[in-house]
Fold this sequence. Notes:
2 domains; CATH 2.40.50.140
Amino acid sequence: MTIGPRVAFVDDMEDQIIKLDEAVREMKAGSIFFNATPHLAVFPDAPLDTVKLLFLDLYYQKDFVPEMSANWVEKIIPKNTEYELVVWSKDTDETDKLLPILDQFSLKPKNVERWQKNRYTDVDKLKAKVKEVTGHIPNLEQITQENFFGEILEVEKDGVLVNCNIGLEKPVFQVRKFDRELLSRVDNLKPGRFVKIIIYTKPGARLIDIMEDLEDRSALFKTPDYFKGLEQSAFFKPE
């Protein structure tokens, strides 16, 4: 089976899917997050045939807009394929307005669950629920996953140098060179642009997915000044 994420999240607030994603990672299913905020949204160029479980927040302007939510699904899920849908929202009662639109788009899910965000305050119960629905994924393989952000340093003919912050709790920088084709989804490829890098690995296969990140991630790449405040100390005084 093609390597890639088996679970996708669509939400306008990434911090609201952290516990969901942790549970998916424990299942080693492989996941991907899409920010639904209009000016930050970056979706794949083509639907992902590996995704079989979709956690979907619902889109509101003043009122619920089912067509927009359906458009997000269309960008992620191939038409006429089996997948499970979890509506992850504070207004799950709007799900009935969404389902007919998905049917019109040939995106009818095999199964639908409605999870109200404000009811899932118990982290352990939430993780158990995620593991339950993740276990429904057919032919689930063990996929390990690395997620980190990068800042483009230099664009060369044979590749792109990226400063990667691979640290989980504190900054750990590593400059890596990627083939230009891996950054084909980055508009206006130039130094200073930020990217999100996901590396999926399973026995005998590896996939590197690089997408543009439209948020300002400059704070992640500030190098600490370890000598700040020591200018008048003995360390700097000439002997």
